[in-house]
Amino acid sequence: MELEEIYEINRTVDFILSRNFTRVALQFPDELLKDSIRVVRALRNKLQNGEIGLFVMADTAYGSCCVDEVGASHIDAHCVVHYGHSCLSPTSTIPALCVFGKELIDTSACAKSLLDYTEANEKRVLVLFGLEYAHAMQQIREELTAAASTLPESKDVSEFHFAEVMCSVINPSSSPGNSHGPGTDSTASDNIASMSGSRHGIGGLTWDLPSGQKVEDYLLFWIGSDGSAFENVVLTFNGCKIVRYDAKDNYLVTDLSQQRRILKRRYFLVEKAKDANIVGILVGTLGVAGYLNMIQQMKDLITGAGKKVYTFVMGRPNPAKLANFPECNVFIYVSCAQTALLDSKQFYAPVITPFEALLAFNRGSQWTGAYVMEFQHLINSSPVEERNHSEEARFSFMQGGYVEDLDSQEKIEKDDDGVLALANITEKALQLQDKNSTSLIKGTIKSGADYYLSTRTYHGLEIGNDNAVPEPYVIGRTGKASGYEHERS
């Protein structure tokens, strides 16, 4: 295919001119950056307007599947044209056009594999796909109809349901629950009842099911690679039978035991997170709509469970970065659905999703098997089944252990004004006294750095006892930079 067709040059030009954008950010993932110069040249030739600025963005601070609003703001861009794989997460402040690209696929072989595998299957079939293969779906439908008509017993093609791309233009969201802003299609979380049935969606795909039918009633046939988008499907629809057609090598993958094992791993991390005392919130996006609401909701959840919380903004997390905060027993990663799962095996502490945090820190929560990847679906909601509060104990800083009825314990700890002094509670919990009389670390631990330093066996230059330091050495200020001794008053 020609470059202009793959990168949809004409549609991009129409998008820019129809909205009168004069500063356009072109966001490329690393694997497509090699084509950026040719794309810019093709756009300039079509635009024929020297007043329109085109700026190439690469090396995004977070996942390349999300629109980099922070990078675009540095050049005062009016819009972003996002190239390559996209999670279609809603933006907060800037409109975007998503160009998915057009990966090569043998449509005849794909249709034949789909028909052959489902011939003996009694369930209806729901066809999902990676967005890079959206351009071929109509041809696959036609090939499927043609192949089915040649069989002795013609397969009912009406039993095949194809998902559709929700929308390739993202407008800024006006509220956390509105994924793509006004004037676009319904959000991926919509389960909208209508005269004909209900609407479902995931990862930028949407489809309608007849009234009375559920996704679990269908065999899911995924066309595409074994990437984050497919992993999202496997976890979200873990109760469905799923097969995958590898479009690059033209073969069918029916054994998904490795993907199913991921769910067991996530459940293990939820159980491990329940024992955490200090929790870190990792900001994994600065552009996806509703991320601030989700961070605040996580803070309220953690403090309500009697635990200490820190918030970190560090770009893409890696083991070396998180190892700087060993006092955190678990981290919550607030990011888009397709970058939310981090393999915690290499990390010092588990890294979980907001949904898993709700399971771990909501007292009385019980995992019903449902799994939610997109944090927008969780804002101001609790997708877990509530049980009697007395059935599960929670850790309390006030009591120094697990208690059966934390609410009654909190009532006891209220001060004279009837307000829970949460700051005093957490300060009590972190009040570590160093027994070494020569140590500079004494008193209350006021930060994560203090906690880390207090656990070290060496705290810096220590000469004799506090009262036996030779006079020549007592020069200047003594203590730590965060609070010298003469500043304590």
Provide a descriptive summary of the structure in words.
The chain is α/β, with parallel strands linked by helices. The chain folds into four domains: about 5-100, Rossmann fold; about 105-255; about 260-390, Diphthamide synthesis DPH1/DPH2 domain 3 (Rossmann fold); about 430-489, no CATH class. The chain has 14 helices and 23 strands. The strands form seven sheets. A five-stranded mixed beta sheet has the order 2-1-3-4-8. Strands 6-5-11-12-13 form a five-stranded mixed beta sheet, with helices on one face. It has a four-stranded parallel beta sheet with strand order 15-14-16-17. Strand 11 (about 220-225), helix 7 (about 230-235) and strand 12 form a beta-alpha-beta unit. Helix 2 packs across helix 3 (about 35-45) and helix 8 (about 255-275) crosses helix 11. The longest helix has 17 residues, at about 255-275. The protein is globular.
The separation of the N and C termini measures 74 Å
Strands ordered across the widest β-sheet: 2-1-3-4-8
Uncertain residue ranges: 174-196, 383-423, 429-442, 467-474
- Note the beta-strand portion: 15-25%
Q: What profile does the largest beta sheet have?
A: 5 strands, mixed
- Average pLDDT number: 77
Which structural category do the helix and sheet elements fall into? alpha/beta
Tell me how many strands there are: 23
With helices defined by DSSP (H or I, 4 residues minimum), what is the helix count?
14
Question: What can be said about this structure in brief?
Answer:
This protein is an alpha/beta fold and 489 residues long.
